[in-house]
Amino acid sequence: MTEPNTSCAAFQHSAAIDADAVAVRSIGGGQTLTWRVYAEEVRAVAAGLAALGVGRGDTVALMMGNRVEFYPLEVGAQHTGATSFSVYNTLSPEQLTYVFANAGNRVVICEQQYLERIRACGTPIETIVCIDATPEGAVGLDELKAMGRPDFDFEATWRAVRPDDVLTLVYTSGTTGDPKGVEITHANLLAEARAFHAVLPVEFGDRQTSYLPSAHMADRFCSLYLQQVYGTQITVVPDRSLLPAALADVHPTIWGAVPRVWEKLKAAIEFSVAAEPDDARRGALRWALDVAARKADAQLRGEPIDDQLAAEWARADEQVLSALRAGIGLDRLKWAMSGAAPIPPQTLGFFFGIGIPISEIWGMSELTCVASACSPEQARLGSVGRMLPGMQWRIAEDGEFLVRGPLVMKGYRKQPRQTAEALDPDGWLHTGDIMSVDAEGYLRVVDRKKELIINSAGKNMSPANIENAIKAATPLVGAIATIGDARPYNTALIVIDAETAALYAAEHALPDASAAALAAEDGVIAAIARGVAAGNATLSRVEQIKRFTVLPVFWEPGGDEVTLTMKLRRKPIADKYAEQIAQLYAEDLAATVHEPDGQRSRAGGADTLTAGR
Questions:
Q1: Alpha carbons 172 and 179: distance in angstroms, whole number
Q2: Is residue 218 within 8 Å of 339, Cβ to Cβ?
Q3: Tens of pLDDT along 493-513?
Q4: What does DSSP assign to residue 589?
């Protein structure tokens, strides 16, 4: 049999392997789709969309949460030959106006709660399909499926899709300006799936969760597309707060997360151990985590684990750690991965120590998601692995990492100038990342080229490296923005993590878990000051944070400060918090400016030893 060369052909192949197996399910299995029913619904959706005039080369937008119904709608649109894409549910009418105009979609499939926002965007939309109601002026889901004509040739339609057709658009949540629509072809997707599978194998029936927005390329690839190509079983998680329950229900065999999710999971484990009411159990957990930490420290230092430590870890695993992994639902993993942003090595070390090795991957939407990875057996902490099979790389004179190969996007939608800036005439994608590569081809991300800090003495530094060191030292820190470009020393704006804030407040019997209350709470400031000091201890002197302020707000994804994928908008942050930044460099310390715990600082003329002010 000829190997599938489009997502449609791949889906048809997977659907035929075991038609009665469950393909998509809700948490607990109350709602399920077998491959047989899934394929039937794909056919019905494709017929309905075709009756609306949707065909090869058209564009269909989807706006909904993580739900079972998404899958046959998305895959059905693909089978018409259309380019199907998702938008973030948090987009404003003005942002939807830009995206829909750029995409050129005539159809939107959505939940009722987004209907008015879509209508308010003003972009001409011929048909709105509402999946959970039948409001006036919109087509209901059952109505769409009933529209298909008896003479619709489903087989001929999906077989007419070509590998170089655009499969999807991924709107990058850029840190400046309007998002760019990355065009990913069917050929890109199939090349990505096969190269990824060669390093991190995926098999029919592998269990996975879908909890990131479907507009996020990580969710589209790891949940939707890997399912189409290899037949994985997806459990949808409609709300991120339900992720712990989903993991305990699913016990996934393959699973990935962005760094913030791994960091929150680590914090939750640590808080649960501290709050364990049974003295004996709490003591056992602390002993096991101490053994795990010593194993992780050796790995982080690149040192072999001696026989004594190996034997003690085996006992800790048998008596405590294996049950801990089972309790959080990560006891049956073939592999786990982290991507989308750099993850602190200490976080990787924590999970390695408790028996969950994480393969850190690197990629970007412009590279169809993942471009480098390593199997758990070959992974090295702090490295994002090696380039996937079939990909070439080189480093430009200015240090920028360039990539060429079958994963490189077709271009940016209707933006030839930006496409030419990213893709040179020889096919090299200019990634914007600064990377280092060792003799064995292992890659390490230094930082984004445009985000490197150059202090007043001319020293180049990576703010991401500094920020990861601080975040790894305290779970209270949700976001941190390092300030130091053209400055004599580094300072930081710190934002408390919203979820950890609630846990901290409960543990310390604080009545108010708001950002404003906690940012003024002496115990919180002292804990963060200790964390900054601990993070500083892992950095060179010039990189260290000399002063910080804790902002009385939480930063929400898609807000002024962070993108929908939680990347810092550094220029808007600098503008919005100019007054707070000025105070960080003032000669006299304001009440809201603090120094790392136990650190004597002469910054700005001060000569004080403080533990937070």
A1: 5
A2: yes
A3: 999 988 888 888 888 888 888
A4: P
Place of tokens 């999906």: 158
Whole-Å CA distances, 396 to 311, 399, 446? 47, 5, 14
Whether the CB-CB separation of 93 and 80 falls below 8 Å is answered with no
Q: What is the DSSP letter of 554?
A: P
- Which of 71-75, 97-101, 283-287, 463-467 has the weakest average pLDDT? 463-467
The angle at the Cα of 360, spanning 355 to 362, to the nearest 5 degrees, equals 170
SS3 205: coil
The answer to whether the beta carbons of residues 111 and 63 sit under 8 Å apart is yes
Strands 358-360 and 335-338 come out as parallel
Sequence-ordered list of residues with C-beta below 8 angstroms from that of 40, at least 6 positions apart, any chain: none
pLDDT of residue 599: 52
Q: Give strand ranges (E) for 264-368.
A: 335-338, 358-360, 362-364
Assign 3-class secondary structure to 23-68: EEEEHHHCCEEEHHHHHHHHHHHHHHHHHCCCCCCCEEEEECCCCC
Contacts of 535 (CB under 8 A, 6+ apart): 466, 469, 470, 471, 472, 473, 474, 545
Do residues 228 and 194 touch, judged by C-beta distance below 8 A? no
pLDDT band at 609 (very low <50, low <70, confident <90, very high): very low
Residue among 464, 600, 455, 607 nearest 542 (CA): 455
More confident: 597 or 529: 529
Q: End-to-end CA distance of the chain: give it in Å, rounded.
A: 70
Q: What tokens does 592 get?
A: 């809201």
Instruction: Share the mean pLDDT of the chain.
Output: 89
Cβ–Cβ under 8 Å, residues 603 and 547: yes
- Do 349 and 300 touch, CB atoms closer than 8 A? yes
Tokens linked to 201: 């194998």
> Which DSSP category does 366 fall into?
G
Q: Are 385 and 409 in contact (CB under 8 A)?
A: no
Higher pLDDT, 412 or 177: 412
Taking the C-alpha atoms of residue 284 and residue 319, their distance in angstroms, rounded to an integer, is 9
482-495 in b/e form (b: 16+ CB < 10 A) is bbbbebebbbbbbb
Reported as a single tens digit per residue, the pLDDT across 342-359 is 777 788 889 999 999 899
- Residue 335: both structure tokens together: 């592999």
pLDDT band, very low/low/confident/very high, at 240 (cuts 50, 70, 90): confident
What gap in Å lies between CA 24 and CA 8, rounded to an integer? 17
Average pLDDT over residues 578-594: 89
What is the token pair recorded at 48?
């309905």
Distance, in Å, from the CA atom of 384 to the CA atom of 377, rounded to the nearest integer, reads 13
Strand partners, 148: none
pTM assigned to the model: 0.79
Strands 545-550 and 490-496: parallel
What percent of the chain is helix, strand and coil (3-state, nearest 5)? 40, 20, 40
Higher per-residue pLDDT: 167 or 504 = 167
Burial of 529 (0-12, 13-18, 19+ CB in 10 A): buried
Asked whether residue 185 carries a pLDDT value surpassing 50, the answer given is: yes
Residue 290: phi, psi to the nearest 5?
-65, -45
Please state, in angstroms and rounded to a whole number, the distance separating the CA atoms of residues 407 and 575. 36
